[in-house]
Amino acid sequence: MNNKYTLNYTFVLILVLTVGCGGSNSSNVNTDPVIINNNDDSENISTLYQDFLTPNYYLLEANDSFILETNKFLINARKQQFHHPFEDKNGNKPYTSTPNNSKFTAEKNTGNVTLHHSAVDLYLQNAKTSVNIYAAHDGYISTTKLSGKYRHYLSITKDVNNIKGVTIGKLVTIYAHIDLDLDESEQIWMNNIYVNKGELISKHLYANTAGGPHLHFEIRYYRLNDDGTETFYGIGGPMGNPNLTQSSAGDYSFGAWDPEVGYGFGNPENHGLFFY
Ligand SMILES: [Zn+2]
Questions:
Q1: What is the CATH number of domain 1-276?
Q2: pLDDT at 233
Q3: How far is the CA of 164 from the centre of ligand 1 (A)?
Q4: How many Cα neighbours within 13 Å face the side chain of 104?
Q5: What pLDDT was estimated at residue 110?
Q6: Residue burial 23-53, b: 16+ Cβ < 10 Å; e: rest
């Protein structure tokens, strides 16, 4: 363990000790701090910031092999600190707002099933669409113009390794509601290339996104054997049981993800990104 992480974990631990007791939340998502003890990696992590993991994570016994596997992944994935997607190399970024219903795990009013927003939406002032978007971390880019959920989006995928250097899963960030047609017309086409953290990846938000142009910034945690994008979201699932349908915003068919594919959605705050 290097000094940087020692400091980070010590800081978070102090936060938990001082702030982590009590508190209530109107959401039915369990927002208690997740305390992770993982002897295999000989590190302990505590965090205030609830991820949005597959329902199995909250339902299985603490010593279940899936829980242990997920914890091991989280410990190592959270070591990746993110670059703010609007921040240039000089540390400047435009003013953005994130309404309450666009925050991470905000509840969506959808009738029978409680849906949640598994990402953060960033709005610029005056519905601006022209903005430089930068990679939150290094990795390989894939793009799509065919998503029913997001229209155009770009994703960056990075392996998550354990302390022995063995790859145990994948960290993916999604930059959605962008305009890849406009990017392409300006010779910005990033598909299949490797980018460094902080590198420019897009310059346009889509003007006609419902509710106004915004960047939908999403973090997904994948198990090792899947490199998909939309496949993260399974179809179907236990419709009748609200305890098993902690789904993302949008149609239900997009909302129930398959624990064989992914661990769930990451909270940006666990990667050092705070949006207000
Ligand atoms: Zn969104």
A1: 2.70.70.10
A2: 58
A3: 35
A4: 22
A5: 61
A6: eeeeeeeeeebbebebeebebebbbbbbbbb
